């Protein structure tokens, strides 16, 4: 039924004339690569290097350098990604604090760094030091009162608007591809699609700079998703330095898969989670060799970030926590409830955000991206400033929500009523009744939660770098912390209830609200992205707590089940479909009983298939066919009458071959016969010199019969990464199925608009 032939049957693809020339084997923008062909070319290259290595010591050294080039690229990616992540973290820290005040002793210090260096800071007032001054103190010498508050409020909004305007202007003018999260496009590129410039040097530079600006502006977005894009730009840059990767799009994608792992490694300080994220979420083709290299790149990136130590706590992330209390079986019920909340939030967010992004694409709103960013920033800053939980950076908020209340905590969330007779170690403070600070914090958190849910829907997808991990985690952490405090107070006031009696005696420390925040964060992130394994690993690497894997797993699985009940797509897949990228998802199932003949082109009533014959067309005929059609390639048949299939010729290589032949070979003119056979055809005397193009002919194109079930065809396209597949019956060519035909058919079967699959 399926005939793949010998993968190397196409001959040496590089030398279809006497010697290779530039651009052969490359692809045009917005085209899909042929994975089988790339694999075949790499096998040929490797075979050539191996055979040459036996000829001399120098060739042997060159073969060793070729073998090690992969590890060198990984080392360079890890070093650059880790350095950029550290610089971004330090810059965000400083610029976020710049909205509220400035350090007089050194203006480049953040609030925390400024007060570290002060000798006049007490432990109780560790956030206050003479060197750090709010804008009102600096400008009007007032720190309290209505006028000081209004001035600080006004300057907070002005700084936020300034940062956001600068970011959107830089993206618009210098690198339009630097906007968004980048993960939907990375997934599409890794599946074999070409988007030139998406991973370019300008994109890398502008995305790094604007990422600092937008996170500092206080918008409801994170830097974690865009860091994956930044790391992949690093991967693309370094792979272009080595011909092994720059000349083979398949090999380049192996490097990009590893770079994505390094990106998550530095975003969360989770090297193993990064490797699993690349495997589970973004990669399309992930051989075992790529797994090892991803691990190495993630390790180097994490080590580099740890050396920079951007948070000053010798940790890779801002929200590293350690809990001292075990969890109990009865707590699984609220953990599962948080999973349900995460799934529902994920569904709500995806539907609302996609509806808003579609509206942006189809209405006049999309024509004014700068105005939209300014408007959303202004609304965010105006509403965020009065509430201390939305005023600070989202990472700091998550850090506070994850924290366990120790004896030294000064947060409102830790304002419990202490027993004066308590004499216990610092780490084991018993459950206590909530004080007024906790109740006011609960109200502020509830308002912050509603605000975050609404504003994130409108923020994600604007023409600025915008990650979704941190806002999703913040939503879950706020909900989780409130549930945790509720369970804690219930256990304290009703410890005689049957569910608390066995594990929560009076005076015991039995409920950790910070753990609930962590579980809620995992649930919401899982609901939006539909990650499971990598999510749990990232979360326990974040917290360093192996014993909390079961609550995290329960919440992640529950949120995925609940979200999947309303729709199988995660946010990244939804944005891929919205943008019309030709992405064939491995996770989708095709269960319809259609055949290859129902999908192939040409259909009944359509013009016959454009084909080349093996020895009866002139150069002019071939050039006319290329000019009049926009197909990526043409089947080659014995003759138009027999239609017996010989092979397949790529459009780009036909153009290059004819152009090169006209320049280099004497006697090749417009009425020269083009032939794809070994021996030239018999020509009348005085005929112009014929042109042999057998070397560009793929003699083993993938073929299926017209009665092959589409279920099998879809599987072949997924697993082998084909661009096109020819349909035959008894060796006669009937039609062709391309990747876009498959995607259109799948959309039609799912009652969607088949034209929505086209890239826009």
From TrEMBL:
User: What keywords is this UniProt entry annotated with?
Assistant: Antiport, ATP-binding, CBS domain, Chloride, Endosome, Ion transport, Membrane, Nucleotide-binding, Repeat, Transmembrane, Transmembrane helix, Transport
Q: Where is the CBS domain?
A: 600-664, 697-755
Q: Name one GO molecular function term.
A: antiporter activity
Identify the InterPro entries for this entry: CBS_dom (IPR000644), CBS_dom_sf (IPR046342), Cl-channel_core (IPR014743), Cl_channel-4 (IPR002246), ClC (IPR001807)
Q: What is its main location?
A: membrane
Instruction: List where the protein spans the membrane.
Output: 68-92, 153-175, 195-215, 227-243, 255-279, 332-356, 368-385, 441-461, 468-487, 515-540
Q: CDD domains this protein is in?
A: CBS_pair_voltage-gated_CLC_euk_bac (cd04591), ClC_3_like (cd03684)
Q: How does it sit in the membrane?
A: Multi-pass membrane protein
Return the similarity comment.
Belongs to the chloride channel (TC 2.A.49) family.
Kindly provide the name given to this protein in its UniProt entry: Chloride channel protein
Q: Which gene encodes it?
A: Clcn4
């Amino acid at each position: 039924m399926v005939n793949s032939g010998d993968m190397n049957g196409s001959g040496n693809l590089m030398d279809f004339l006497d010697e290779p020339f530039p651009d052969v084997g490359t692809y045009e923008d917005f085209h899909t690569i042929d994975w089988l062909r790339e694999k075949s070319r790499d096998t040929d290259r490797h075979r050539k290097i191996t055979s040459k290595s036996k000829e001399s010591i120098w060739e042997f050294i060159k073969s060793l350098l070729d073998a090690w080039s992969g590890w060198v690229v990984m080392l360079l990616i890890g070093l650059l990604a880790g350095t950029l992540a550290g610089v971004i973290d330090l810059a965000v820290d400083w610029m976020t604090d710049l909205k509220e005040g400035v350090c007089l002793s050194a203006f480049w210090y953040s609030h925390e760094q400024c007060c570290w260096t002060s000798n006049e800071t007490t432990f109780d007032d560790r956030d206050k030091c003479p060197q750090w001054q709010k804008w009102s103190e600096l400008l009007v010498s007032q720190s309290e009162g209505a006028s000081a508050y209004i001035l600080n409020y006004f300057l907070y909004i002005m700084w936020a608007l300034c940062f956001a305007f600068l970011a959107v202007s830089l993206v618009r003018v210098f690198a339009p591809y630097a906007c968004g999260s980048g993960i939907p496009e990375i997934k599409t590129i890794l599946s074999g699609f070409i988007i030139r410039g998406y991973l370019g040097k300008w994109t890398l530079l502008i995305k790094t700079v604007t990422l600092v600006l937008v996170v500092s502006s206080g918008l409801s977005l994170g830097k974690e998703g865009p860091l994956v894009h930044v790391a992949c730009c690093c991967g693309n840059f370094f792979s272009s330095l080595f011909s092994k990767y720059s000349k083979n799009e398949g090999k380049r994608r192996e490097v990009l898969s590893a770079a994505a792992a390094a990106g998550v490694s530095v975003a969360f300080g989770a090297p193993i989670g990064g490797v699993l994220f690349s495997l589970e979420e973004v990669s399309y083709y992930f051989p075992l060799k790529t797994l090892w290299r991803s691990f190495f790149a993630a390790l180097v990136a994490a080590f580099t970030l740890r050396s920079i130590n951007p948070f000053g706590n010798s940790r890779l992330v801002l929200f590293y926590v350690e809990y001292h209390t075990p969890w109990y079986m009865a707590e699984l019920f609220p953990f599962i409830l948080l999973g349900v909340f995460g799934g529902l939030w994920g569904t709500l967010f995806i539907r609302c955000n996609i509806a808003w992004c579609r509206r942006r694409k189809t209405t006049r709103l999309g024509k004014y991206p700068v105005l939209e960013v300014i408007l959303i920033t202004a609304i965010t800053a105006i509403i965020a400033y009065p509430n201390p939980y939305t005023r600070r950076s989202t990472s700091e908020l998550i850090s506070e929500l994850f924290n366990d209340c120790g004896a030294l905590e000064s947060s409102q969330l830790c304002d419990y009523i202490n027993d004066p007779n308590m004499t216990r170690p610092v780490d084991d403070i018993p459950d206590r009744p909530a004080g007024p600070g906790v109740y006011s914090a609960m109200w502020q958190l509830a308002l912050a939660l509603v605000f975050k849910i609404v504003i994130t829907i409108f923020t994600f997808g604007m023409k600025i770098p915008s990650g979704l991990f941190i806002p999703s985690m913040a939503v879950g952490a706020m909900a989780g912390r409130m549930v945790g405090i509720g369970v804690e107070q219930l256990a304290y006031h009703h410890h005689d209830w049957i569910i608390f009696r066995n594990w929560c005696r009076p005076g015991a420390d039995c409920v950790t609200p910070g753990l609930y925040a962590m579980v809620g964060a995992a649930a919401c992130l899982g609901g939006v992205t539909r990650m499971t394994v990598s999510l749990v690993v990232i979360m326990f690497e974040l917290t360093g707590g192996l014993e909390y894997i079961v609550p995290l797993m329960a919440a992640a699985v529950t949120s995925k089940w609940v979200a999947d009940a309303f729709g199988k797509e995660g946010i990244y897949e939804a944005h891929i479909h919205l943008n019309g990228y030709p992405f064939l998802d491995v996770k989708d199932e095709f269960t319809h009983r259609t055949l290859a003949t129902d999908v192939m082109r040409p259909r009944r009533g359509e013009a016959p298939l454009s084909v080349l014959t093996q020895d009866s067309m002139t150069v002019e005929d071939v050039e006319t066919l290329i000019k009049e059609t926009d197909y990526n390639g043409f089947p080659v048949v014995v003759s138009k009458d027999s239609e017996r299939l010989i092979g397949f010729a790529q459009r780009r290589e036909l153009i290059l071959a004819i152009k090169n032949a006209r320049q280099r070979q004497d006697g090749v003119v417009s009425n020269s016969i083009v032939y794809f056979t070994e021996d030239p055809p018999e020509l009348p005397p005085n005929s112009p010199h014929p042109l042999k193009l057998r070397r560009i002919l793929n003699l083993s194109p993938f073929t299926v019969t017209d009665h092959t079930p589409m279920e099998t065809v879809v599987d072949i396209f997924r697993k082998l990464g084909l661009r096109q597949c020819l349909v035959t019956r008894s060796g006669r060519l009937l039609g062709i199925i391309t990747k876009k035909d498959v995607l259109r058919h799948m959309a039609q079967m799912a009652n969607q608009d088949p034209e929505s699959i086209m890239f826009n």
